[in-house]
Amino acid sequence: MWETLFRDFSFLPEQASEHAGQVDLLYFFCVALTAVFTVLIPAVMVFVAIKFKRKSDDEVPKPVHGSLPLEIAWSVIPFVVTMVLFGWGAVLFFNYSSPPPNSLDVHVVGKQWMWKIQHPEGKREINQLHVPVNQPIRLIITSEDVLHSFYLPVFRIKRDAVPGRYQTMWFEATKTGEFHLFCAEYCGTEHSLMIGSVIVMSPEEYDQWLQTDDQDGSETPVAAGERLFSELRCNSCHNGAGGNGPSLDSLYRTRVAFTDGTNAIADESYIRESIVDPRRHTVAGFGPMMPTFQGQVSEEQVFELISYIKTLGVE
Ligand code: CUA
Q: Fewest CB atoms within 10 A around its CB: which of 14, 30, 37, 242?
């Protein structure tokens, strides 16, 4: 029923993920709620104005002393309504922020004025995102200059691309086809041209597409990261054999303790911070000796290093 409504009236773009349907349902709930109050409030105003109209010039109204049940009702009902909206929205938000473990990691870098995308197998593309249908895709998003926002309307997902930080979101496309991709944050003169398409393919087509030639060669991010790791001589300290730096074996997704008593989960963002701003957090038991690699490695290279580090010590 919703499907037909959307197609006939085109209030919203089509739905191409499970998430899209859920977001639209919440959206329509908000609209319906707003509509109810928009009608209810003026209706009550008009009704009261007529009913309590002064009948004669010397009429004195009866004093009003308040009503406890009424006050409780107009406090509790809006509270319940807003909590339903909050809870419903929070569940959707958490759902789209926590990708399933079998998702494919696709890296997205925003740059004035294009989207640079790299697949786990190494293939790169610009302003296009090819994905297989019915496969969870996790996007790891950052920017190399200003704020952008990666927006895929048919999946009802959007996340800011923030310089110096990784943002993630995930989706699972439920139908094949070609859909819009936008930058949804004003980012300079050519912001409106920072658009592209997401192409959802069958798994077989996607595999074929991955095989097609691309000019960058097809070094995987892991292989490129391994090469960089040795070129930048990271292993002179991070060699896991009592070096000056902590071992990176099986680091990914473990909890790391710092000298200041705090700790963090070693996710992509943490590993990134350790490369570009290593002295912000020093791992307990080590000294603040690591120099920053800010400016020496591009966003893509940071991603490649992270991809390689994630594989260390993993069978
Ligand atoms: Cu990038 Cu707007």
A: 242
CB of 148 closer than 6 angstroms to any ligand 1 atom: yes
Ligand 1 and 196: CB distance under 6 A:
no
Which of 106, 115, 103, 101 shows the shortest CA–CA distance to 148?
A: 115
Model's pTM, two decimal places? Answer: 0.74
Q: Tell me the CA–centroid distance for residue 13 and ligand 1, in Å.
A: 20
CB 140 within 8 A of CB 208: no
Tens of pLDDT, residues 183-237: 999 999 999 999 999 999 999 999 888 877 665 556 778 888 888 888 888 877 8
The helix-helix angle for 299-311 and 221-231 (nearest 10°) equals 100
Ramachandran bin of 22, using left for φ above 0, alpha for ψ from -120 to 50, beta for the remaining angles:
alpha
User: Using an 8 Å Cβ cutoff, are 279 and 290 in contact?
Assistant: yes
CA distance 232 to 132: 35
Please answer whether residues 195 and 183 qualify as being in contact, where contact means their C-beta atoms are separated by less than 8 angstroms. Answer: yes
Ligand 1 centre from 151 Cα, in Å?
10
Q: Is the CB of 227 under 6 A from ligand 1?
A: no
Cα separation, 210 vs 208, in Å, equals 5
Which residue's CA is the closest to the ligand 1 atom numbered 1?
A: 148
pLDDT in tens, 158-179: 999 998 888 889 999 999 999 9
Query: All domains of the chain, ordered by start, with CATH?
Result: 12-49+99-215 (2.60.40.420), 221-309 (1.10.760.10)
Q: Is 116 in the pocket of ligand 1 (CB under 6 A)?
A: no
